[in-house]
Amino acid sequence: MQESASLWVGLGRVIKQAVLAATGAPWVAELVHTLAGVVGILSIILLSALVLVYLERKVCAWMQMRLGPNRLGPFGMFQTIADIIKLMTKEDIQPAQVSPVMWGLAPILLFMAAMTTYAVIPFDAGVIFADLNIGIFFFVAVGSQATLPMLMAGWSSNNKYAMLGGMRTVAQMISYEIPLVFSLLGVVMITGSMKMSDIVKAQEGLWFIVTQPIAFLVYLIASVAETNRTPFDLVEAESELVAGPFTEYSGMRWAYFFLAEYAFMVGASCIAATLFLGGWNGPFLPGWIWFFIKVAAMIFLFMWFRWTFPRIRVDQLMSFGWKVLLPLSIVNVVVTGIGLWLFFPLV
Amino acid sequence: MAQLKLEHNGVTACGTELYLLNMGPQHPSTHGVLRVLLELDGETVVQATPVMGYLHRGLEKLAEARTYPQFIPYTDRLDYVSSMCNNLAYCQTVEKLIGAEVPERAEYIRVIMAELNRIASHMLFIGATALDLGGMSGMMYTFRDREYILDLFNLASGSRLTYSYVRIGGVMNDISPEFIELLRKFLADLPGMLTEYDNLINGNEIFQARLKGVSIVPVGRLISQGVTGPVLRASGIDYDLRVKKPYGIYNRFQFAVPTGSVGDNWERYLMRVLEISESAKIIAQALENLPEGPVMAKIAKVIKPPVGEVYHANETPRGELGFHIVSDGSTKPYRLHIRRPTFYNLGCVNALCQGVKIADVAAVLAVLDPCMGEADA
Amino acid sequence: MFGIGLIKGLSVTLRRCFSKPNTVEYPEQRLPVGPMFRGGTLDLNQEKCIACSLCALACPNNAIELATEKTESGKKALTLYRHHMPVCLFCNYCVEACPTQAIHWTQDYEMSSLTYDEQIIDCMAAKGGAR
């Protein structure tokens, strides 16, 4: 396995050697190296959330013939900072009748789930926090844990609207997990391994979106449903349930949910970029810039969908997930299997 | 949806229950201050009770202390989205009472203004329905295009929402050539705007799936409730006052009345979209035949109608708006009653919401196109 | 199944995304209000006013409070003229009723204030009569 030439790997090496020279203990150097990775991931999440809050409003405004935030800072860039200050200084209201432990834990657990999924995303050759053998499986498993905190939030809020939202969330997320997993199976079958770096390496010649278009479509729809974005945002349907399971949260607690939603959206875009759009492969520019471009394209797609489509109803959502997406993804797996058997017979 | 109840030794061990959800007066999608009490079984509505009256301002009582011309600005504020039509209905009622003749040019201008207002009201309806169903961009496009109409009204009457333009015996003032120029430009741009709404809103499969086949109610129920307007026409009854009981000079215009067949939410929505094109046809015909002349008849400064009562109704974008005036010979009406279409349309919310999901309640309220200023007066 | 309609909708928003926005950046830019705009308060030209009180009589909501007195020449003169903006309907009846066209609208729509009393405008104190 050759050493990657990426900028970030080089940076990590420099940090390790510096700490080794300073302390002389290899385990300290390893620890600092790992911590640098954690800091890197956290900064990616927080920076991307910062930028995305602003970008979402800008893209929304442009699609609606408006200007969006343009008062604070050049082009309104400091709008997110103002939003964060506002959220941090808001009164933290805890209604009297909530179950305090569950109510307080819900946003933290959701954000934890979102953060942990970033551990297996390959930003560049060798720039993965943990290149697990079960990379993509880890992502799906941890990502599906996000269902529980939503239900906790809805139930513990002691509020009918919140409970309705929580129930809808569980139904929605469970229904769309399965097509999501099946759509990723096709890619895993072609690659032969679940390791993220292997999947990206297998796309050096041809991106998987060309050989697995149906899987990409299913993945796109399922991930929009998983991240609770329009047209599947009936969890937080503003015109019906006011705010769904998040109704009783204010200030920083609500900001956690908000951050977690954006973190999940970026995570889903990263997986789409890795599995279908070739990861960090690309000519001329360094790998992580290509990755960034592909993720940005996917995020624009998510936002485009949000500001064009109306919302789907809960029973239509369930019937679409189970009766259309699931058979489609299973058919995709079967066709992929047949294709592999025909063109690459087992020796 | 059947309810579960498992009993053990006469005690309910496990079961489902109906619960009350209040879509209160302050709610993002109840089109104003309307309160709907929902009795729900899970996500399905078992009973929906509308509670109106949060915007009651006592207009009918106020009318007894105002002279006939002085009441016109109050009619503006009834259904504030279609002020011209309200003014027109009231003025025609008073003209019927005093037996006044309106000059030709004023009649044509009245028709142009009323139909323009119908287009504006329906555009607002399309935007509000798109917003209630989650497609927030749809609202921006229709409101932007409605601004053209409001600019036209600003040019003619000086106001953007509450015009008091139609007066007893004619209209407030004449329209300028600049107005006609802008109006022609707007009519030329209108098909492009409608195509955009088709592509973004009507043609969207998700939008159609939300509205098609939902809330089908037998026509007899609607008629017995007194529902009029596009809601009734969607169920197949071809009842449009401009055709059945023409008022003013509406019998001189050629236009079709869109009628549905199934009577679901989709058709209630579609009726209004189709009516926009029909109104544009009427305006084009009126512009062609616009005669010269005065715009105000010779009416006495102080209007003292003979003793008697009169009822006259118009077709507003929401339905049949009627004014019943009882006069006792003085300058102020003895009793003025307003037959408000939204009030009757909202009466069948319960019938429309039987067995639908909560999300559909928002859709039902949206396609009924209520305007609470009118429902409560 | 879903298909063409969704793609058409996406193309509409994409086209609008890259075209010029329709925003008028208030308060730096303001949209012009037409010549007939009924807004703000009443601009009273005291030379033209003959104190006939027709404007106060025409008002549906009694938004004009005026008092007159008889001068030595026997004509009437204004002593008090207040426009109660909170109850004004902006219906234009007063302007139309005036026989000498002494009152007009100031066409100012930025009329918010901190107290209720500031909304009752003393039209005689404000030097009107520009038109």
Provide structural commentary:
- The complex is a heterotrimer of chains A (347), B (377) and C (131).
- Helix content of chain A is 68%, strand content 0%.
- Chain A is mostly helical.
- Chain A has one domain.
- Chain A is globular, with a radius of gyration of 21 Å.
- With 377 residues, chain B is an alpha+beta fold.
- Chain B has one domain (5-376): Cytochrome-c3 Hydrogenase, chain B (Orthogonal Bundle), CATH 1.10.645.
- Chain B is built from 15 helices and ten strands.
- In chain B, the strands form four sheets. In chain B, strands 3-4-5 form a three-stranded antiparallel beta sheet. In chain B, strands 8-9-10 form a three-stranded antiparallel beta sheet. A two-stranded antiparallel ribbon of chain B has the order 1-2.
- The two termini of chain B are 38 Å apart.
- The mean pLDDT of chain B is 90.
- Chain C is α+β, with helices and mostly antiparallel strands and 131 residues long.
- Helices cover 18% and strands 19% of the residues of chain C.
- Chain C has three helices and five strands.
- A three-stranded antiparallel beta sheet of chain C has the order 2-3-5, with no helix packed on it. Chain C has a two-stranded antiparallel sheet with strand order 1-4.
- Chain C is elongated and about 85 Å long.
- Classes of the chains: A mainly alpha (347), B alpha+beta (377), C alpha+beta (131).
- Chains in contact: A-B, A-C, B-C.
- At the A-B interface, helix 7, helix 11 and helix 14 of A face helix 4, helix 5, helix 7 and helix 14 of B.
How would you concisely characterize the structure shown here?
The complex is a heterotrimer of chains A (347), B (377) and C (131). Chain A has helices at 7-23, 26-63, 79-88, 100-116, 135-144, 147-156, 160-191, 196-201, 208-211, 213-226, 238-241, 252-275, 287-306, 314-343.
Fold topology:
The complex is a heterotrimer of chains A (347), B (377) and C (131).
Chain A: H1 7-23, H2 26-63, H3 79-88, H4 100-116, H5 135-144, H6 147-156, H7 160-191, H8 196-201, H9 208-211, H10 213-226, H11 238-241, H12 252-275, H13 287-306, H14 314-343
Chain B: E1 5-8, E2 11-15, E3 19-23, E4 35-41, E5 44-51, H1 59-63, H2 72-76, H3 83-98, H4 104-132, H5 136-157, E6 166-167, E7 170-171, H6 177-202, H7 205-211, H8 219-225, H9 230-233, H10 241-244, H11 265-288, E8 308-316, E9 319-327, E10 335-339, H12 341-345, H13 349-352, H14 358-368, H15 372-376
Chain C: H1 4-17, E1 42-44, H2 54-58, E2 64-70, E3 76-84, H3 93-97, E4 103-105, E5 120-122
Antiparallel strand pairs in C: 1-4, 2-3, 3-5
